[in-house]
């Protein structure tokens, strides 16, 4: 909890800075946190503001013009866009960064509050917004159509302040593209939105090769209006760009010129010498991966190119969360400041510095006396236990029916967790709502004290909209709950299959919003998480079918017609009465007209 | 099977392997050919002729059977022709709305409308008597008509009543007066254009007033010359526009020299396509981290707003500004030469995306860096004919915008209004050039000229789009023409007609604009393109498996029936002949 607290404290402080110093309209920060199993979490955060008056006058300074234009054109009040890849391994990495508020499910996720008078107008603006964003971010966001758009009721709450918004003219729309593959073409426009363009400051570390090689990564863009508390001062429009990535240190350190892993020569292997069978030719790999040393240039391929001159000087650009006992080497021109919590330190970089390098030596390299004491001291900050673990999978077999099972585990020994579970399913998965049930592991579903407290369900309409299912439920302390329901698979039309139909259809991640235990504000979320996306296989036809059908029916019709026609029209006689047919007669039939033609042609020229 | 006698078995086998040649007509034909073969080949036909006497003839067919077969074949063909073909035709035909092709081509050829710009010029001569003024007017009109060689551009003089009050603003009586000439007695004959209003001040020595009887007057000739030179550019541009479009040669004005035509073509290609709204984007691009802010709003208000206000009857403007740091230009040379200028704008990296509202975007880039333009005078000559800003380190990119290079001290963090003055003045003059404003004359005159040029341009553009659409529909018979296209065409033509009637006024511009938009919409109708990619091979692949096996028995049946019918007729004729002989 302590680390989580420090993390939120840090973001809280930076938030305060943003409020206090309106002159500093931009700040950026990179938080590095080594994770167990040789992983490294890097959280990049860029935040810039513009006053609403400047925004409405189309004067853009830190706020990107290309995005601002789109927001104005589509009447967007608040926007959240996520590009994610990979899976957050909660069992070993613990709680998610930013409490899960800055991540999306695999693929692209977009939700926005639009200002429109009617639902139709909102849909129209949503279409404009997705199409424009699709062009800006080089993503297939324009495929977010009616079937992939839902209007969540309970799951999402606006993050910004909307002073003069009413419920009737603000519409929340949510769209998700689980199939979208996030890649470098999405990173480039993302970097272009930054004031320093990835040429200076922490953004200079971002490189498509490393980012999309990560075990898990999430790019987020959040635009929200923020008004100073108390009502004095002008409201600002804040854009926050976040990139979180979990790098496998071992993998990242592999040189770029030699990216293929090859077996190490025997003498370079780290062996666990305590094993009884250890000898010259047997080696049990030592679990030294947790204590690997790394430097910025090793894991990111480059160093930080100075600081962005626009950034708020009060916010240190780089922070590292390791126990204070570990020593860190930094390049000249930077200053280390240890925070009071004992598990994090920040680095201030002087403006003239051109390259900032940070090296975290492995604990083995430390002097011996430190190591002695370090047996008890953790080498890395122990990850925080998340409030809830969630896992979702398909059950059942066959091409016709299936089921979905979500396993929700509450690790806390004494606290109950209340949350909203949201699914937006494609229309071709028709769920049977009556089969939905939640049961605690080891017990049968019971009526008293139900786990499911509230269900919001909007059934799918074929080819027009998807299923929207929001369930408010709770998981008692230290127990595991199974949420299951069954569904039926529809048969698609021939043209509705994608080119790679046999791969299956992606089903978007379920969004779990954990509500604050404080009953007074049940609406506010304390922690978000998303399950992995699923791959649903539908019965897939053979795609040469139409041509086969044409040929087959034509042949059948021709056979039937030919037979019938001949029976009606022809005269049947005995075999010896009919004309004689043999090869010789056929030849004669052919040769005679040909001869006639030759005879006519030959004398022609004379 | 086994119970049957073997001879039956053989017959069945024979008839099943050769089912198509068991007809009696065939037998007859067969006989005919074998005899023919026997006569032609002589000895070779021996084998066939030897067997023929042994052949059994089938019993003669009953007449009712023959008739029934005829009916069967006829009814099959009746169904195919009367039901099958129309259904096939109806379901596969492509909808083509009726377009008034002739009329459209007429518009494109300029036969439907002759653009005429009647310009009314008021003469205000308070110091002259009515009679004298009328006389002067007549003489001047005469002189003008003599000078004018282009009938499309017509200056018509009229006497304006003396203003009731003494304020300097004419045009109170009507907006359609293009220019007011104010005749004031003075020392010598001089002419000056009022810079703020469409007024030409002409002073004249009192003795130059023509008498009532004189047929020529130096003052009249002078006024006529002045008027002509004032409108010379407009006339040249309009005649250039007409000549580049497919106007019939008799309407084409003469006297446009190739050099003049070339400079005009340069200027027209530089100007943006007409749109009611333009979006102006001001970008401060810096090669390094500084400066990162500018007083652009105040600067625009001070230096550019007046011109935008003046242009507002013709165009609306929306403005946005942005600051972009660490912008790398496309060319890294310290000194830029002429070739570098075209690739200076780094389109891949600079976020200069056009506005999404649909209005064309004009980009004004202020680039802070230490690059300079080599030999600015020469470049200015070719890129920037406006003499006012020869030395400015800027260049105009046709139909796109302007780049202005500014070098500032390294530690400048803020660009002030005074620093922005020169760039913004340059941007303003380039904006006028980008909108296609003519370059000579006072500003109000240039603007009224602009609106006339734009109407003519839009009118011609819409006409030529109509022509293209007509030619397209003629050239591609397989293209579908939905009714929305026909709608658009009729709307276009209605507005073109109105525009043609009211050419030169504000209404004319509006009609021409609507006509152009409708014509473009009709031409770029999406559903017209879809049918194009349905190749004939595809159709054959779909039809052949069905039509082949069905069509062959049908056709063969018909052919055999015709043969049989002809044979029957011949037999009947022979019989009749034999009867006659008897």
UniProtKB/TrEMBL annotation, chain A:
- Bilayer-spanning residue ranges: 545-569
Signal peptide interval: 1-23
Which terms does the UniProt entry file under GO BP?
A: attachment of GPI anchor to protein
Its keywords, alphabetically, are: Membrane, Signal, Transmembrane, Transmembrane helix
Q: Which domain of life is it from?
A: Eukaryota
Gene Ontology, cellular component aspect: GPI-anchor transamidase complex
Q: What is this protein called?
A: GPI transamidase component PIG-T
Organism of provenance = Cercophora scortea
Organism classification: Eukaryota, Fungi, Dikarya, Ascomycota, Pezizomycotina
Automatic annotation (TrEMBL), chain B:
Q: Signal sequence: where?
A: none
Keywords of the record:
Endoplasmic reticulum, Glycoprotein, GPI-anchor biosynthesis, Membrane, Transmembrane, Transmembrane helix
- Can you list the GO cellular component terms from the UniProt entry? GPI-anchor transamidase complex
Q: Pathway involvement? A: Glycolipid biosynthesis; glycosylphosphatidylinositol-anchor biosynthesis
Places the protein is found: Endoplasmic reticulum membrane
Q: Which sequence ranges are marked TM in the entry?
A: 71-89, 540-560
Q: Polar residues compositional bias: what residue ranges?
A: 12-22
Q: Name one GO biological process term.
A: GPI anchor biosynthetic process
> What is the membrane topology listed in the Swiss-Prot or TrEMBL record?
Multi-pass membrane protein
Region annotated Disordered sits at 1-25, 39-64, 155-177
By sequence similarity, the record places it as follows: Belongs to the PIGS family.
This chain belongs to the protein called Phosphatidylinositol-glycan biosynthesis class S protein
State the species of origin.
Answer: Cercophora scortea
């Amino acid at each position: 909890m302590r680390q989580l607290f420090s993390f939120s404290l840090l973001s809280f402080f930076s938030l305060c800075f943003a409020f206090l110093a309106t002159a500093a309209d931009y700040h950026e920060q990179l938080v590095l946190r080594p994770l167990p199993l040789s992983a490294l979490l890097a959280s990049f955060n860029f935040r810039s503001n513009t006053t609403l008056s400047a925004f409405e006058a189309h004067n853009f300074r830190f706020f990107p013009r290309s995005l601002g234009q789109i927001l104005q054109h589509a009447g967007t009040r608040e926007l959240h866009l996520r590009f994610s890849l990979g899976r957050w391994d909660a069992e070993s990495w613990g709680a998610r960064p930013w409490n899960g508020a800055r991540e999306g499910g695999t693929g692209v996720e977009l939700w926005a509050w639009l200002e429109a008078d009617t639902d139709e107008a909102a849909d129209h603006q949503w279409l404009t917004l997705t199409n424009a964003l699709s062009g800006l971010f080089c993503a297939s966001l324009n495929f977010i159509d009616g079937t992939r758009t839902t209007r969540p009721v309970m799951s999402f709450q606006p993050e910004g302040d909307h002073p003069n918004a009413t419920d009737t003219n603000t519409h929340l729309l949510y769209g998700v593209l689980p199939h979208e593959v996030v890649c470098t073409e999405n990173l480039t426009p993302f970097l272009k939105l930054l004031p320093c363009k990835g040429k200076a400051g922490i953004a200079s570390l971002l490189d498509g090769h490393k980012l999309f090689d990560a075990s898990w990564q999430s790019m987020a863009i959040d635009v929200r209006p923020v008004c100073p508390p108390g009502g004095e001062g002008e409201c600002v429009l804040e854009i926050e760009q976040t990139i979180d990535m979990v790098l496998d240190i071992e993998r990242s350190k592999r040189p770029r010129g030699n990216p293929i892993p090859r077996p190490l020569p025997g003498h370079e292997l780290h062996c666990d010498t305590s094993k009884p069978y250890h000898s010259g030719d047997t080696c049990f790999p030592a679990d030294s991966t947790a204590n690997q040393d790394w430097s910025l240039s090793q894991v990111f391929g480059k160093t930080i190119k100075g600081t962005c001159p626009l950034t708020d000087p009060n916010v240190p650009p780089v922070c590292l969360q390791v126990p204070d006992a570990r020593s860190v080497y930094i390049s000249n021109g930077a200053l280390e400041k240890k925070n009071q919590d004992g598990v994090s330190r920040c680095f201030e970089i002087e403006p003239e510095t051109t390259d900032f390098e940070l090296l975290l030596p492995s604990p083995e390299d430390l002097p011996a006396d430190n190591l002695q004491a370090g047996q008890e001291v953790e080498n890395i900050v122990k990850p925080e236990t998340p409030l809830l673990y969630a896992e979702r999978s398909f059950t059942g077999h066959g091409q016709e029916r299936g089921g979905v099972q979500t396993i929700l585990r509450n690790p806390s020994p004494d606290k109950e967790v209340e949350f909203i579970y949201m699914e937006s399913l494609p229309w071709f998965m028709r769920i049977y709502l009556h089969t939905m049930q939640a049961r605690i592991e080891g017990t049968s579903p019971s009526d008293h004290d139900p786990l499911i407290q509230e269900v919001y369900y909007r059934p799918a309409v074929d080819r027009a909209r998807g299923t929207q299912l929001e369930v408010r439920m709770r998981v008692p302390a230290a127990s595991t709950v199974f949420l299951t329901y069954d569904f039926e698979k529809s048969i698609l039309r021939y043209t509705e299959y994608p080119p790679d139909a046999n791969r299956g259809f992606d089903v978007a991640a379920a969004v779990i919003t954990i509500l604050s235990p404080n009953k007074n504000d049940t609406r506010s979320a304390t922690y978000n998480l998303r399950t992995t996306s699923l791959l649903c296989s539908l019965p897939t036809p053979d795609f040469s079918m139409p041509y086969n059908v044409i040929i087959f029916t034509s042949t059948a019709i021709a056979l039937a017609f030919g037979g019938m026609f001949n029976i009606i029209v022809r005269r049947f006689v005995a075999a010896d009465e009919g004309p004689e047919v043999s090869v010789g007669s056929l030849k004669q039939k052919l040769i005679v007209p040909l001869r006639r033609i030759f005879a006519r042609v030959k004398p022609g020229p004379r | 099977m086994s119970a049957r006698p073997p001879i039956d078995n053989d017959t069945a086998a024979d008839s099943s392997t050769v089912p198509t040649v068991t007809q009696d007509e065939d037998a007859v034909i067969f006989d005919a050919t074998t005899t023919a073969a026997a006569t032609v080949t002589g000895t070779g036909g021996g084998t066939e002729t030897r067997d023929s006497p042994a052949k059994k003839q089938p019993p003669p067919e009953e007449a009712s059977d023959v008739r029934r077969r005829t009916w069967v074949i006829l009814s099959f063909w009746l169904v195919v022709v009367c039901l099958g073909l129309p259904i096939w035709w109806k379901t596969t035909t492509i909808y083509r709305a009726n377009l008034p092709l002739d009329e459209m081509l007429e518009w494109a050829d300029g036969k439907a409308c002759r653009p005429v710009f009647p310009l009314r010029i008021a003469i205000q001569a308070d110091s002259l008597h009515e009679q004298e003024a009328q006389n002067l007017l007549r003489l001047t009109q005469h002189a003008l008509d003599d000078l004018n060689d282009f009938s499309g551009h017509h200056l018509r003089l009229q006497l304006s009543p003396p203003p009731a009050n003494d304020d300097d603003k004419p045009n109170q009586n009507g907006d359609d007066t293009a220019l007011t000439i104010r005749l004031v007695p003075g020392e010598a004959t001089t002419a000056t254009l009022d810079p703020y209003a469409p007024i030409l001040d002409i002073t004249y020595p009192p003795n130059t007033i023509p008498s009532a009887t004189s047929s020529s007057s130096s003052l009249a000739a002078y006024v006529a010359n002045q008027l002509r030179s004032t409108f010379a550019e407009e006339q040249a541009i309009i005649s250039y526009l007409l000549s580049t479009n497919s106007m019939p040669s008799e309407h084409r004005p003469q006297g446009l020299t190739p050099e003049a035509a070339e400079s005009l073509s340069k200027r027209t290609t530089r100007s943006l396509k007409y749109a009611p709204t333009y979006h102006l984007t001001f970008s401060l691009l810096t090669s390094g981290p500084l400066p990162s802010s500018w007083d652009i709003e105040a600067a625009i208000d001070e230096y550019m707003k007046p011109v935008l206000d003046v242009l507002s009857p013709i165009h609306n403007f929306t403005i946005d500004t942005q600051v972009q740091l660490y912008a790398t230009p496309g060319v890294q040379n310290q000194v830029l030469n002429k070739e570098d200028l075209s690739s200076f704008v780094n389109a891949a990296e600079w976020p200069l995306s056009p506005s999404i509202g649909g209005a064309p975007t004009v980009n004004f880039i202020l680039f802070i860096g230490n690059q300079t333009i080599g030999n600015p005078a020469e470049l200015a000559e070719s890129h920037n004919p406006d003499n006012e800003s020869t030395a400015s380190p800027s260049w105009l990119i046709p139909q796109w915008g302007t780049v202005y290079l500014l070098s500032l001290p390294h530690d400048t963090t803020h660009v002030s209004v005074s620093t922005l003055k020169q760039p913004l003045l340059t941007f303003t003059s380039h904006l006028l050039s980008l909108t296609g404003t003519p370059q000579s004359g006072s500003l109000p005159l240039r603007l009224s000229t602009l609106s006339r040029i734009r109407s003519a341009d839009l009118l011609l553009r819409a006409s030529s789009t109509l022509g293209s659409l007509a030619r397209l529909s003629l050239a591609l018979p397989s293209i579908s023409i939905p009714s929305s296209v026909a709608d658009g065409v009729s709307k276009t033509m209605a507005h073109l007609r109105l525009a043609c009637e009211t050419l030169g006024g504000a209404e004319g511009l509006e009609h021409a604009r609507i006509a152009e938009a409708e014509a473009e919409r009709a031409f770029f109708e999406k559903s017209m393109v879809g049918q194009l990619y349905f190749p004939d091979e595809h159709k054959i692949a779909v039809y052949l498996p069905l039509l082949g096996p069905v069509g062959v028995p049908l056709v063969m049946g018909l052919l055999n029936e015709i043969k049989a019918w002809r044979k029957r007729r011949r037999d009947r004729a022979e019989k009749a002949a034999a009867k006659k002989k008897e």
